[in-house]
Design brief:
By secondary structure, the protein is an alpha/beta fold. The protein contains 13 helices and 21 strands. The chain has a six-stranded mixed beta sheet with strand order 1-5-4-2-3-6, with helices on both faces. Helix 8 (about 260-270) runs parallel beside helix 9 (about 290-295) and helix 12 (about 385-400) crosses helix 13.
C-alpha cells in the first residue's frame, strides 16, 4: 500500500466516505485516507483514534490499510476488531475518545464499503466537515510519526449497558429477529437471550454475501421471510437489523410492516409523560401522522434534515429525550446515551409490550391515517442530482408553493406534501409523497415524478 492521488472525489459524501470495492476503495485509497485522517486530527490536538469494522469481505483489508495510514502520522490506534457500528459508538464513549473511524457501508450492496468517521466531540463528520476533509486529503500535506496499536474488546461493556437500560414487565414476548446475515449476527442472539423473551432467529449467521436478502430493514420487500416467520410462529413481533446494526425494521403480530415514523409514535406515546422536555425530532421524510400525534400529546415536534449524522447531533445539541428518521435510525436520550442501535431500539419496543396486554398493532390505535408512498429512488449521477433538485426548487418558487428547503425541497399543500431530495449515500434522487386521499397522492406523484424525469436527462 502507498499514497495515491487516484481517488474518486465522489466517495466523499454528505455523511461519510462510501464507494465500491476495489474500484473506489482499495488498500492504497484506505492508506491515504488514514494518513489524511491522522494528520487532520493531529492538527486538532488529538492523539488517539478508535477503529472498528463490519463483517464485509473487504473490511479487514481496508481497516488494516487505514490503521497503517493513521499510525504513520504518530496517532495511536485503539483497534476494536469486528463490531457493529453501535458497539463502535459506545467504545468511543466508554474510552472517552470521540475521535475514530468505523469501516462500513451500512446497508449498501455487498461490494460497497466506506468509512464513518468523527474528528472530535462534534460527532460523525457531515456536510461541510467532509468537504473540508476531502480538500485536505487531496492536498496530501501529511504528517509523519510513529503511532502504536492497542486492542480493546467492547463486547462485555456493551452488553452491560443493555442490562442497565432496560426494565421488562411480567409479560413474556415472543419475538423473531432477523440480522440479515449482517454484523449484528455476532451479538444479536446472545444479547436477546439474556432477557425474558421467547426468541426465534432467522438469517443469524454472519455472511457478507447477504444470501437471503439485502440488509436494509426499512425496505419492506427485504422482510418477506420475517413476515412469514412471525405468522408461522404466532409471534408478537418481528425485528430486523441492517448490515452494521444501527437501524431497525419492525413487523407487527399480523405480519405488517411498521414504518419507523409509526414506531416513533409508539415510543413517544410511551415516554412523553416520563420526560421533562417534551420535544421530539423527526426528519423531513416522516409522515404527518407523527407530527399530528406529537401535537395531540401537547408536545413539540422538530422537523429536521435527513441523515443520521445530522439528526443524532441535533438530538444531542438540543438535549431532546428522543428523535429519529424514517430510514430506521432512532436516538434514545432518556436512559440510553443517545446513539443509534437497532438492537436496543427493538428491545425498547419489547419493553413496552411486556408491560401491557396490547398487541403491536393496537399501540397505533387512534393515529391519523394518510396515503403515502415508500421512499422512491431515481438513478441520477452524483454531479447532476443536486442541480435537478435546485431546478425543482425554482419550479416550486415560481408556482408560489409553500416549501421547506432544509434538505432538498419539501412542498406542503392543504391536502398533503411532496419531498424531492438528493441522496447523500448514493447516486440517486429520492422522493416521498403523502396525501389525504389516494387520488391526491397520485396527483402529487405525477406532478413531481414528471419533473424529476424531465430534468434527469
Amino acid at each position: 500500500m502507498e499514497l495515491t492521488r487516484n481517488i474518486n472525489q465522489y466517495i466523499f459524501r454528505g455523511y461519510d466516505i462510501r464507494g465500491v470495492y476495489p474500484t473506489d476503495l482499495n488498500s492504497d485509497v484506505a492508506y491515504t485516507i488514514g494518513k489524511s485522517f491522522g494528520t487532520y486530527v493531529k492538527h486538532l490536538g488529538k492523539t488517539k483514534a478508535v477503529i472498528g469494522m463490519d463483517n464485509r469481505y473487504s473490511s479487514l483489508e481496508l481497516k488494516e490499510s487505514l490503521v497503517q495510514g493513521i499510525i504513520s502520522t504518530g496517532i495511536d490506534v485503539i483497534d476494536l476488531g469486528l463490531v457493529t457500528t453501535p458497539m463502535y459508538y459506545y467504545a468511543c464513549i466508554k474510552l472517552n475518545n470521540p475521535t475514530g473511524v468505523m469501516v462500513t457501508a451500512s446497508h449498501n450492496p455487498k461490494d460497497d464499503n466506506g468509512f464513518k468517521f468523527a474528528f472530535d466531540e462534534r460527532g460523525n463528520a457531515r456536510g461541510k466537515m467532509i468537504e473540508e476533509f476531502k480538500d485536505f486529503t487531496f492536498k496530501q500535506d501529511f504528517e509523519d510519526g510513529i503511532g502504536k496499536i492497542s486492542y480493546y474488546d467492547i463486547r462485555n461493556d456493551y452488553i452491560e449497558l443493555f442490562k442497565q437500560s432496560l426494565d421488562f414487565g411480567k409479560r413474556k414476548i415472543k419475538v423473531v429477529i432477523d440480522p440479515g446475515n449482517g454484523t449484528t449476527s455476532i451479538i444479536a442472539k446472545e444479547l436477546y437471550e439474556m432477557f425474558p423473551l421467547d426468541l426465534e432467529v432467522i438469517f443469524g449467521d454472519s455472511n457478507p454475501d447477504f444470501p437471503n436478502h439485502h440488509p436494509d430493514p426499512c425496505v419492506e420487500k427485504n422482510l418477506e421471510s420475517l413476515k412469514k416467520k412471525v405468522i408461522e410462529k404466532n409471534a408478537d413481533l418481528g425485528l430486523a437489523f441492517d448490515g452494521d446494526g444501527d437501524r431497525l425494521g419492525v413487523i407487527d403480530e399480523q405480519g405488517h410492516y411498521i414504518a419507523t415514523d409509526k414506531y416513533m409514535i409508539i415510543i413517544i406515546r410511551d415516554i412523553v409523560d416520563k420526560v421533562a422536555k417534551k420535544e421530539f425530532l423527526y426528519d423531513v421524510k416522516c409522515s404527518k401522522s407523527l407530527s399530528d400525534e406529537i401535537e395531540k400529546l401537547n408536545a413539540r415536534g422538530i422537523c429536521y434534515r435527513t441523515g443520521n449524522s445530522y439528526t443524532k447531533a441535533k438530538v444531542k445539541e438540543e438535549n431532546l429525550p428522543f428523535g429519529g428518521e424514517l430510514s430506521g435510525h432512532v436516538y434514545f436520550n432518556d436512559k440510553w446515551p443517545c446513539f443509534d442501535s437497532g438492537l436496543y431500539a427493538g428491545l425498547r419496543l419489547i419493553e413496552i409490550l411486556s408491560k401491557t396486554d396490547k398487541k403491536v398493532s393496537n399501540l397505533l390505535d387512534g393515529i391519523n391515517h394518510y396515503y403515502s408512498t415508500e421512499e422512491l429512488k431515481f438513478k441520477s449521477s452524483d454531479d447532476k442530482k443536486f442541480l435537478i433538485v435546485d431546478k425543482i426548487k425554482e419550479y416550486c418558487l415560481k408556482k408560489g408553493y409553500q416549501i421547506l428547503a432544509i434538505d432538498g425541497v419539501r412542498v406542503t399543500f392543504d391536502y398533503g406534501w411532496a419531498l424531492v431530495r438528493a441522496s447523500n449515500t448514493g447516486p440517486n434522487i429520492t422522493a416521498r409523497f403523502e396525501a389525504k386521499t389516494f387520488e391526491q397522492l397520485e396527483q402529487l406523484q405525477t406532478e413531481f415524478i414528471d419533473l424529476i424525469k424531465e430534468y434527469n436527462v
